[in-house]
């Protein structure tokens, strides 16, 4: 059933008010097809929402918002070493991670406590602590909005990149992701290479960690650095870590000897956007009822009652500041609506 003039505040983790002219949720593919058929006649602009954790609503939406509530997790196949697990797009991502750990299925424990839905995870190619979705991805099914047919995409067809996929570029707005199948492990190779995880495990006095131990360590680290969206409105990391060439990095290193960085390949270096923003003086900066989080400069926050345009303007000021100081171009990770 399509509702009119619905406030999207409960449906985005920034907690921003935005009125959708038309709104409906769906929990079956048939229901989704029926809603899309109606919209083909009405020709409204379309916005599909999952967990609402990676969007910044800067205005009211004069179209149709569809909330993806497709649920379900099932094992597709397994052997002694691995297991293919399909999760519907409306499932909460962290709950899916907990399901995997409970069933001793590894590969996504480093991605614990990332906000959002399963359906958004391949779209963003979410990643943390040395692991990305593409590392365990098998395939996904998506509904073609124009033809209303279900299509299957493998990893190559998804064209995964750093915090992006084909669904954020050439196929943006053309498909609704229905489910995703991951290849999870029964015999685990843990990734604790990020120092923060190793240090946290040491604090926990764990020398032979399990996937649950790694998950617990990641959760502890994230909780110490990042605000809970249920308490302070935010979308997690607002900016991507920029990637630059080695020549540009050498010049920056000479000027800023302590610049935080990670070697990416033979020709490129990944910079820590949080470090750049922090050193530029933005960390903890508050403007009325919004600002930059005190513990993590990558996170912009709504302390209550802010509007999306204000937060967008703050992000623009940060982008310009980083460009001026370092000559580095930051990109927003969130989708601007």
Explain what the structure shows.
The structure is a single chain. The chain is of the alpha+beta class. It has three domains: 3-68, Uridine Diphospho-n-acetylenolpyruvylglucosamine Reductase, domain 2, CATH 3.30.43.10; 73-185, Uridine Diphospho-n-acetylenolpyruvylglucosamine Reductase, domain 3 (2-Layer Sandwich), CATH 3.30.465.10; 233-336, UDP-N-acetylenolpyruvoylglucosamine reductase, C-terminal domain (Uridine Diphospho-n-acetylenolpyruvylglucosamine Reductase, domain 1). It has helices spanning 29-42, 93-102, 120-124, 155-158, 195-203, 211-225, 246-255, 273-279, 308-326; strands at 3-7, 19-26, 46-49, 55-56, 61-68, 73-78, 82-88, 127-128, 131-132, 137-144, 150-154, 175-185, 233-234, 243-245, 261-263, 268-271, 286-287, 290-292, 300-302, 335-336. A five-stranded antiparallel sheet has the order 6-7-12-10-11. Strands 1-2-5-3 form a four-stranded mixed sheet, with helices on one face. It has a four-stranded antiparallel sheet with strand order 13-19-18-17, covered by helices on one side. A hairpin with a 2-residue loop joins strand 8 and strand 9 (131-132). It is globular and about 60 Å long.
Shape: globular
Uncertain runs: none
* Rg for CA atoms: 20 Å
Helix/strand class: alpha+beta
- What is the element string, with H for helices and E for strands? EEHEEEEEHHEEEEHEHHEEHEEHEEEHE
CATH architecture tag of the largest domain:
2-Layer Sandwich
How is the largest sheet built, in terms of strand order? Answer: 6-7-12-10-11
What is the arithmetic mean of pLDDT?
93
Question: Strand-residue fraction?
Answer: 25-35%
Helical percentage: 25-40%
Separation of the first and last Cα atoms: 24 Å
CATH topology of the largest domain: Uridine Diphospho-n-acetylenolpyruvylglucosamine Reductase, domain 3
How many helices does DSSP assign? Answer: 9
